Amino acid sequence: MKEIRINENDANQRLDKFLEKTFPELRKGMMYKAIRNKKIKVNRKRAEFSQILRVDDVILLFLPDDVLIEKEKKILHNAKINVVYEDENILVVDKPAGLLSQSAKEGQDCLVERIRTYLYQKGEYNPKAEHNFAPCICNRLDRNTSGLVIGAKNAYAAREINAAIRQHLVHKYYHAKIEGNLRNDIDVTLYLKKIDTKALVSTTEQEGYMKAQMRVHPYKHEKNATWIKVELITGRFHQIRACMAFLGYPLAGDRKYGSMRKEDMQLDAYRIVIDPIEMELEQNEFKK
Fold first, then answer.
1. pLDDT tens for residues 215-236?
2. Tens digits of residue pLDDT in 192-213
3. pLDDT, tens digit, for every residue of 72-112?
4. Number of H helices, E strands in the chain
5. What does the alpha-carbon distance between residue 150 and residue 135 come to, in Å, rounded to a whole number?
6. Are 174 and 232 in contact (CB under 8 A)?
7. N or C: which end of the chain has fewer CB within 10 A?
8. Is the CB of residue 259 less than 8 Å from the CB of residue 179?
9. d(C-alpha 280, C-alpha 277), whole Å
10. pLDDT at 104
11. Which top CATH class is 171-271?
12. Confidence class of residue 71 from pLDDT cuts 50, 70 and 90?
């Protein structure tokens, strides 16, 4: 028998979802059968698949030990991050170009792992005290894009910031260097579809394509190049890169989308603004 007490980071999620994330060896069929047969209880009472867990709920699991092995959480030693803002719930960090935001391979160096190591070294994250939560990022940047990323220290912050992003309350601004001479502001509305590691672009809405919107302002001109500021209205995969290339202004050095220049791509998320949300923030605008 195993007993689990729900903490603040575990709370406000369904019982079945919590068990799926906590015990990777517990198959869905076995889990649902155990709940029906009272082999899994909450507060010593019959449990429901969809019941929402609350702080201090106690889950009792009368199951074999080999399916109740919790996922091991590893901590890397690299905590090198540039923190732009930090409070009790979130931190905003400046990701360098060349670093993955998140890795599918456990233990690989990436921004998420560095944030977890940073918080672990500060005493703000104890992986042994958590069942399935770990500090996470709420917005991702491509490996070769630099700039601001919001990290959530707890589940409450992750829910609040992710909800704000879905409701378009988080505004993201970028600098980029493009090929060609763009003279006027443009409001872009196109449609993107991700195919493997590239985005396809359409001028019309089609099945599988998502609307992509942004505002583009040219502010500095060089020989056969323009520096632009971009305000994202939506946040699609490779949105700036694919849309600007489609319009005839690929990012300089972005060979995936047609640039022939032998230089590093310049794309930097330099500013984030968060509209008022329920979670209190000491400031709502973050700049590099």
1. 999 999 999 999 999 999 999 9
2. 999 999 999 999 999 999 999 9
3. 777 777 789 999 999 999 999 999 999 999 987 777 899 99
4. 5, 15
5. 11
6. yes
7. N
8. yes
9. 7
10. 73
11. alpha beta
12. confident
CA dihedral 106, 112, 113, 119 (to 10 degrees): -140
Domain boundaries, the chain: 2-67, 83-167, 171-271
Strands 285-287 and 198-202: unpaired
pTM score, whole prediction = 0.86
Predicted local distance difference test score (pLDDT) of residue 128: 86
φ, ψ at 16 (rounded to 5°): -65, -35
Mean pLDDT in the chain?
A: 94
Residues 6+ away with beta carbon under 8 Å from 78: 109, 113, 114, 117
> Which residue, chain included where needed, has tokens 């589940």?
155
Q: How far apart are the first and last CA of the chain?
A: 51
Rounded CA-CA distance 148/201 in Å is 26
Q: Which amino acid is at 106?
A: E
Q: For the domain 83-167, what is the CATH code?
A: 3.30.2350.10
Q: At 116, which helix (H) or strand (E)?
A: helix 111-122
Spatial CB neighbours of 224, under 8 Å, sequence gap ≥ 6: 179, 180, 181
pLDDT at site 103: 85
Q: Return the structure tokens found at 159.
A: 């829910």
DSSP-derived letter for residue 257 is: G
**83-167 and 171-271 share one fold:** yes
For residues 140-164, one letter each, b for 16 or more C-beta atoms within 10 angstroms of the residue's C-beta and e for the rest, the string is ebbebbbbbbbbbbbbbbbbbbbeb
3-state DSSP call for residue 210? strand
Structure token digits, residue 146: 């630099």
